[in-house]
Amino acid sequence: MSIPLRDFRLGIPDGVHAALEARAIAEGTDMQTVAREVLTSFARREHRAYIIYAKRAAASGMQPELFGDDTEDDGAARSGRR
Asked: Contact 22/34 with Cβ under 8 angstroms?
């Protein structure tokens, strides 16, 4: 069973295209698979970094709200108007 995928179009520079193409040829796969692996790896690193940041901020007594993290930033609608 394959994982559900979302379509995402992105223009990339020639050098990035060449690197993805070379890796795909070297691994006997396609560029989309290589790009998916690169983005997955990036997302895991970013998630880990955020978790570490959040733990350190909490240990220092900082509150995320102080940095502008609001429900509006998450795409959730606010109640009331400004």
From this structure: no
